[in-house]
């Protein structure tokens, strides 16, 4: 066996760490060799951009070579369609909805549960050298101390002789920001992939700009592949290729409009290719050791941490909801039986929605808890992309067909798609009589999931960040699980005929619990004009409630259902807001009311909203506030 596979004796510090750590057990004895693990991650990358998965995808020779020597997963998913939340799941092995990290770039960094550090730290405590080049983008605190090396120079070569390593490297060339080009680029910056050969998804208008945008992101994949090839060459030079499990994947779904930030397949599906090293084929089950194998079973990011620990022979924490998908006891046949994956979407920068999803085999269930919010609601960073701007402009001009225009219209509370015949999720089968058994089964399964893993997304973020937490939001969610279930019960009143929902909504609106009243207002608003019977109650809540969250939703209800003019009320509420996240939430409602009812808001003369100053502690929130005010006050 190669010399570099032999583990040197652990230092006394490492041994001390192992002796005091109780959540995960120690690894196998140090004299038994353990594999290296390398994660190569391209940003904003749906599987649809690779020729491995799609006939018009980019050819990526380095990735395709990995595939020839290993496994191609045809159904791999992020659990969230945006960077920080997706990466937080990868790092922690926990659903972000349970740790309070479900919002992209949280107002504050959350504390992780006691005894559950990132899995890279579990590897480190068990003797692995851990390096990250360079991106973390996590929604939890204490990022740097969890790695042996974290920088744009981080490399496994910093390890001790013979020490196994876990290395993560991220390639930003495919990121959304790389598509923030000027319109003149169509003429001045030709692409390698011919735009005229692109077959656009039916949700997009067939325009030169959309074709060029698609071609340009395919070009970026060619650049990413060359970077990946460089890392693989370093493994070969070090003699570590056959000692290393190499994972190549995207950090969530794609970068084209309507992908990143949304729980559709194009936002959650990722490429996943894993090379099985010759010296460690015994660590995978029957059929998975064969080169060039396609795996059809569903896996998601919640499964990645336990898989890495399993390969490293480290005990997997009981708290992990995911399951390892590579082990000596799991065959290809067993892996192909895995058939479910969960997704979530909450706040992305200044834009908020509340959406959950369940993929079960070839069926996709989506639960929209704020169905009157269109997917295309203004989000400053999204609309820096020229194709996004064109899409919205064509919608306002009335030049889109029904499939293309749906992105800018209110949704249904439930959606069900048969992906085998409808891969772009355009035909909602939720009301189809032939699919009612599947719909009810998947609705129940999602609810059971939310019972098992309390979903903090049902508590308004502005309320949550102002709540005194003794330890972690993870512990808070478990302590308040019954309360969260009551909030979901109120949210699910949307699924009833209004006549059945009305008495329960009336009772919920009379509660002393502001979170219940808040959720009842959202559910009532989803019924539209049918809910006009609650207009008097909404006016009362707007005046008498002590909760600005409730008042904000009452204003929203009265505008959408009772046709009130919200401008004066909005300015009064904004002036009374005591926390920045209350302002962010109010502005999200204002953006909706502008788009859905045409209101142009007026910035009060005494309200001085200045452009954000980079590098200041408040720059993140100042950016959200500034961009929103710019939007809602423009004609």
Keywords, separated by commas or semicolons:
disordered N terminus; 9-stranded mixed sheet; 635 residues; 4-stranded antiparallel sheet; 13 strands; 3 domains; Alkaline Phosphatase, subunit A; alpha/beta; 23 helices
Written overview of the protein:
The chain is of the alpha/beta class and 635 residues long. The chain has 3 domains: 3-338, Alkaline Phosphatase, subunit A (3-Layer(aba) Sandwich), CATH 3.40.720.10; 345-438, no CATH class; 458-632, no CATH class. It is built from 23 helices and 13 strands. It has helices at residues 12-20, 61-68, 83-92, 96-99, 119-125, 185-188, 208-237, 265-268, 304-311, 332-335, 386-396, 402-405, 436-452, 461-464, 473-479, 481-491, 498-509, 514-526, 535-544, 548-560, 567-576, 580-597, 619-632; strands spanning 36-42, 70-77, 129-133, 149-150, 165-171, 244-250, 269-275, 293-295, 299-300, 340-348, 351-360, 363-368, 414-418. The strands form 2 sheets. Strands 1, 2, 3, 4, 5, 6, 7, 8 and 9 form a 9-stranded mixed sheet that branches. The protein has a 4-stranded antiparallel sheet with strand order 10-11-12-13, with helices on one face. Helix 5 (119-125) packs parallel to helix 9, helix 18 (514-526) runs parallel beside helix 20 (548-560) and helix 22 (580-597) packs parallel to helix 23 (619-632). The protein is globular.
Write the CATH homologous superfamily of the largest domain. Alkaline Phosphatase, subunit A
Number of strands: 13
Tell me which CATH architecture of the largest domain applies here.
Answer: 3-Layer(aba) Sandwich
Q: What percentage of residues falls in helices of 4 or more residues? A: 25-40%
Radius of gyration over all CA atoms, rounded: 25 Å
Q: How many angstroms separate the termini?
A: 71 Å
Which percent range describes the beta-strand content?
5-15%
Instruction: State the low-pLDDT regions, or none.
Output: 1-31
Main β-sheet, in a few words?
A: 9 strands, mixed
Output the CATH topology of the largest domain: Alkaline Phosphatase, subunit A
CATH class of the largest domain: Alpha Beta
The structural class is alpha/beta
Shape: globular
Q: Return the average pLDDT rounded to an integer.
A: 94
- Tally of distinct domains: 3
* Total helical elements: 23
